[in-house]
Amino acid sequence: MNLRRWPLLRQFYDLRFLIFYVTSQCNGRCRSCFFWQGLNSGRALELEQIEKLAATTPRIRTLLIGGGEPSLRAELPQIVSIFRRHNHIHDVSIPTNGLLPGRIEALAREILTLNPGLAVSFNVSVDGLATTHDKIRDVPGNFPRAIETIRRLVALRREQPRLSVVMNSVICAENLGELVSLAEFAWAELELDGHFFELIRGSPKELAVAGIEPKLLAEVYGRLIGIQERYVLRAASGQGVIRRTIRRILGVGRLLWQYRTQYRRYAYGRLWAVPCLAGKTIAVVEPDGTLKACELRGAVQNLADTGWDMGAAWYGPEMGEEVHRIAADECDCTHVCFVQSSRDHSLFATFLQVPWLWLRYARGLAWL
């Protein structure tokens, strides 16, 4: 039985998070990239096709822009506006390598101007301090340009408080020993709204960067969580004691749950404590219109086959079959977007495991 077809259940069990690739073009050469084989193919949907797609997409809450490098798509503000108009998105998250500071600042300003009330997050990728970052990204001078991008966006945030400026760091073999130093630098110098870390995923361009020592990873997680807790506490400052406490428990507890789930999957091959909701609450559309349940799985179908009708594809038999395959394959991975979406839709994880993990952490007990 396909529960997504039941109108009364759709508000609880339907697409909420869409990863939408706006371009395949990229000006980086990241050695850790899992999408490297699809880059610079020249493929990208036209605005007319995106309009049809958005108009038939279920009412999503979060739009995550993907690529390629999103800032290379000149119509990025218009694309965000299309989804805002048709889907009433609450927030949009835009990752960037930060190589074009002026262009990225201008795009952020236009997105905010065109979309009143929309929460906009720019997530600048920084994978290490200067030498390490440039080596992983394989672009000399990437680090100072990424830092300039962050500083420009932080200045814009003072005018536009709906803007969040976040740093994303991919954990790999070549930066594991430097991540704590990077996190301390970011906290002290950059006025970020958050700093997030995710395990390298998929089949990267260079497999050598993927070999992470589990014992060292556990040690790094243990030190990073304390730094990330500072962001949670700062965001909750000025609130009442009850609200501040709740935000601390949920903010830190969710990170603990994410790291515990990813670590146990990576180090021991253990399945998640909750079902993966790929193809149920989260989906992916690649630059050529290929629909997937997950970035790390195969194509379900191309939306061109449905005349760019996302609803027809989402509620169609092909996606239903893929959801059954996901359950049968037990393909739980470490992909942060799917880990988070599955956690946040689980009452068991949200109201039992998250507070329990926070309590263990607050008491200095083992939580990983």
Outline the structure in words.
With 368 residues, this protein is α/β, with parallel strands linked by helices. It has one domain: TIM Barrel. 45% of the residues lie in helices and 13% in strands. A nine-stranded mixed beta sheet has the order 6-5-4-3-2-1-7-8-9, with helices on both faces. The two termini are 37 Å apart. About 2% of the residues have low confidence.
Keywords:
9 strands, globular, 368 residues, 12 helices, TIM Barrel, alpha/beta
- Beta-strand share of residues: 5-15%
Distance between the termini: 37 Å
How many discrete domains? 1
* Sheet with most strands: 9 strands, mixed
The CATH topology assignment is TIM Barrel
What is the tally of helical segments? Answer: 12
Name the CATH homologous superfamily.
Aldolase class I
**Which strand order does the major sheet show?**
6-5-4-3-2-1-7-8-9
Radius of gyration: 20 Å
> Which shape, going by the Cα principal axes?
globular
Task: Determine the fraction of residues in helical runs and give it as a percent range.
Answer: 40-55%
Show unreliable segments.
Answer: 6-11
Q: Average pLDDT across residues? A: 93
- Write the H/E string, N to C: EHEHEHEHHEHEHHEEEHHHH
What is the SS-derived class? Answer: alpha/beta
Number of strands: 9
